[in-house]
Design brief:
By secondary structure, the chain is α+β, with helices and mostly antiparallel strands. It folds into four domains: 1-47 and 271-409, no CATH class; 54-270, no CATH class; 427-451 and 650-783, no CATH class; 458-649, no CATH class. It has 24 helices and 24 strands. Strands 1, 2, 3, 4, 5, 6, 7, 8, 9, 10, 11, 12 and 13 form a 13-stranded mixed sheet that branches. Strand 4 (98-102) and strand 5 (105-109) form a beta hairpin. The longest helix has 38 residues, at 321-358. The chain is globular. The two termini are 36 Å apart.
Length: 783
């Protein structure tokens, strides 16, 4: 019996080739997109799953500051006092390019990580050459990855070889590991003993005192005993947080498997994904697949109405309703099967494009793993069943007598299902068009918003970690830069607007407003170079070093100051507040401008040279700056960026979001148009005789066009009414993530509707024009 259904389905597909091709093309297109999105989503959710103990590993965070940077001493306190913790380790990436020296040659590595021995017990790493236990036999031991080993040593074995790190710290390679997987939130090319970080911190602060008086930030990972309820342990630690003071005030956990997509902390140096984007892509995949199903249902019902006598004859000759339903389902599943084949072929062809689009190393091989093959087979059958169930139920419940006498379908009943589905398609298209317009407007808005300082012709030149014996050269560079006529002003800072890594507690007396305030460590030229305005008090002066600070207006308002007299931050020896500057954005427009402190201090080494160019001298100025750098600091990387570009780069994820939603919105609209075109073809063919008679009786081409198109115009208007509130709600929720946002003006609503109407008319008018300009004699002969 199945063979009969199969042969009948093949015959119907070949007989109605035009509509079959439209259905297969639409489904193949949709399936290719859905599979690509599925591969990306699967890859994103697979982060850190490769670790054998992933379910037991958490990262400690300080919840009140949303920080994962915690003093290393907290680790031992936790292990000692909480038996639920099986193991704990330290990890900290460098966060900036680090120079390493090997065989007398210098290299820069972006991914050096300081860890302790327990790191190798908690995380699943594959050793190519494993050292004896413990992994770090001494403070200067290091583990290297295969890629870094080839970069530094070529084909030579790195084991036992020395590498000079941070200019003065020698380490010896004691083991080789395979590269971290692509889906790891932690990655590094060189792992060094965490004890070396103390030496580096001493260099940073330029202080030879006992390191125990300072705060040493690490990320602390905990491996919990099996069956430990993480929430209960987190609450237990919070209840006993006093034993962790002064290193941490409020403690919490984030699961290892949640770090990539749901990390609540700021300033983390681990990879981060975008769960909002994944949700959106999943929704888009569902929409695209739904549109393809709607196309199939519409065209199938339309064809079956045209050829309904076939169904009636089958029922007269004894075919039961189930037999007819099986016929529909077999045909739909066969079409889906063919579409899956073409969809996978299309995906294979476009996989490089999708890898670039998603910036992810997705592989089509994932689909051929047994679990995913089973899911694909189930999905194919489900889509085929859903696609075939609708038409079969509608068309098999009618008596054969009504079918054969032509009274089965009144015009109203015939069009109700089709029109409902078309309205749904148009509504989705209008929502997508509206969302694309608003997203693009918001990105332009944040890029054009005044940051509060003059970002034009302002350059940030990154200062890498300078070796001790090269500090004098760096000072010579600064002196030579100040002599250049192309430079209007120059400021050397630690931290810049857009990248503030340091904060300090205000620790003021007689106030309940104390908070952790982000800090910029600057020199006396900072205010002038950035074009800030001193609103109250005065600017920094050379004699103020390590004595005073300035704040912005937001801080002045937060602390409820009436004046600056006797106002003082009491941390780090104390800083008198001498001035207030205008508010400026020191992070993206996702956040409102908060309090910030501008400190004139020698307690931190500078990380950035900020240069304001004079007039139109950027070109020659850059040439001279680069020449000076190569002459004075040739072994250090020359990395720079203009501030307008730097602030634009903060919205790369939003730009990626906009490109992605725009692309898939276009694809969704194309799939809708494929279905609408098929219906337009069917509608014009069904009315061939009517069109011929009207033309013989004097109807003009534009009248025929209006006749064929007005139904679609009315459906677009209905869809518009439905889509507007949905689009408004969706974009209102998305814009809530921005502290500063564009307006959803009335013209955006109008433009969305007009674009949808234009797309619909362009789609159907081509076929309508062909029908309207056809010779009426041929039309009547055709009938």
């Amino acid at each position: 019996m199945f063979w009969y259904y199969f042969k009948t389905a093949v015959r119907n597909i070949l007989t109605n080739r035009k509509f079959s091709e439209i259905n297969i093309l639409g489904f193949a297109f949709a399936i290719s997109i859905c599979l690509a999105i599925s591969l990306f989503v699967i890859n994103e959710y697979s982060y850190d799953q490769y670790n054998k103990n992933a379910d037991q590993i958490v990262r400690l965070i300080e919840t009140n500051h949303n920080s994962s940077q915690i003093d290393y001493r907290v680790k031992d306190i936790l292990v000692k006092n909480f038996p639920e913790i099986q193991n704990a380790c330290l990890a900290l990436r460098s966060g900036y390019p680090v120079e390493v020296e090997c065989h007398g040659k210098g290299y820069y590595l972006d991914d050096i990580m300081s860890v302790d021995n327990n790191f190798f017990e908690i995380f699943t790493l594959s050793f190519v050459s494993q050292p004896e236990s413990p992994v770090f036999a001494g403070i200067n031991s290091a583990i290297i990855t295969e890629t870094t080993a080839k970069k530094l040593f070529g084909t030579e074995s790195p084991l036992g070889k020395d590498i000079l790190v941070w200019g003065t710290v020698p380490v010896t390679v004691s083991g080789i590991i395979r590269d971290f997987p692509d889906n790891s939130s932690l990655s590094a090319g060189l792992l060094v003993n965490a004890d070396n970080i103390r030496f580096k911190f001493n260099q940073w602060i330029g202080d030879s005192r006992d390191s125990s008086t300072y705060w040493w930030p690490f990320q602390i990972y905990l491996q919990l005993e099996k069956n430990v309820i993480q929430q209960q342990l987190s609450e237990k630690i919070s209840d006993n947080v006093s034993m962790l003071e002064p290193y941490i005030e409020q403690a919490g956990f984030v699961k290892l498997k949640d770090i990539y997509l749901h990390d609540p902390t700021t300033g983390s140096d681990t990879k981060k994904g975008n769960p909002g984007l994944l949700n959106l892509l999943t929704l888009i995949a569902a929409i695209i697949l739904t549109l393809a199903v709607i196309n199939y249902v519409n065209l199938t019902v339309a064809q079956q109405v045209k050829h309904n006598k076939d169904t009636g004859i089958k029922k007269v000759f004894g075919a039961k309703r189930n037999n007819v339903i099986y016929h529909f389902l077999t045909e739909s599943i066969l079409i889906i099967f063919l579409a899956f084949i073409f969809g996978v072929m299309l995906l294979w062809f476009l996989i490089p494009f999708y890898q670039t689009l998603f910036n992810s190393n997705i592989s089509i091989n994932t689909l051929f793993r047994i679990p995913y093959l089973i899911i694909l087979l189930a999905a194919m059958l489900a889509i085929g069943f859903i696609s075939g169930a609708g038409p079969s139920i509608v068309l098999t419940r009618i008596s054969p007598v009504k079918i054969l006498t032509g009274s089965a379908f009144s015009p109203v009943k015939r069009n109700y299902l089709r029109n409902t589905l078309i309205v749904f398609q148009f509504a989705i298209s209008i929502v997508l068009i509206f969302c694309v317009i608003i997203v693009q407007r918001q990105i332009r808005y944040v890029k054009n918003t005044n940051p509060g300082f003059n970002e034009e012709q302002l350059l940030r030149l990154d200062l890498p970690f300078i070796r001790e014996n090269d500090i004098s050269k760096a000072m010579v560079l600064l002196d030579e830069l100040r002599k250049l006529p192309y430079i209007k002003s120059m400021s050397v800072t630690s931290g810049v607007p857009g990248s503030i890594r340091m904060s300090m507690g205000s620790n003021m007396e007689n106030t309940s407003k104390n908070m952790s305030v982000p800090c910029l460590l600057v020199d006396t030229a900072f205010i002038k170079t950035f074009g800030l305005k001193v609103i109250r008090g005065r600017d920094l002066e050379p004699g103020d070093l390590d004595k005073v600070c300035m704040i912005n207006e937001a801080a002045y308002k937060h602390f409820e100051f009436d004046n600056l007299e006797n106002k003082r931050f009491n941390n780090f020896g104390g800083f008198d507040i001498i001035g207030v500057v205008n508010d400026f954005h020191y992070s993206s427009l996702h956040k409102t401008i908060g309090p910030v402190c501008i400190m004139f201090t020698s307690k931190s080494r500078p990380s950035t040279i900020n240069i304001r160019f004079a007039g139109n001298s950027v070109g020659p100025g850059m040439e001279n700056i680069q020449k000076l750098w190569k002459d004075i600091l040739p072994s250090y990387p020359f990395k720079y960026q203009f501030y307008d570009e730097w602030f634009d780069s903060m919205y790369r994820s939003e730009e990626y979001f906009a490109r992605t939603i725009s692309l898939f919105a276009i694809l969704a609209i194309v799939i809708s148009c494929i279905g609408i075109l098929g219906l337009a073809i069917f509608s014009s063919e069904r009315r061939t005789k009517e069109i011929g008679i009207r033309k013989i009786n004097g109807a003009k081409v534009n009248e025929i066009l209006l006749l064929l198109n007005r139904e679609f115009i009315s459906l677009v208007l209905i869809a518009y009414i439905i889509a507007v509130p949905i689009a408004w709600y969706a974009m209102h929720k998305w814009l809530e993530s921005f502290a500063y946002r564009t307006e959803m003006n009335w013209w955006v609503y109008v433009l969305s509707g007009l674009l949808a109407l234009f797309i619909a008319l362009i789609t159907v008018s081509w076929q309508s024009w062909r029908a309207a300009t056809r010779n009426p004699v041929e039309a009547l002969r055709y009938e």
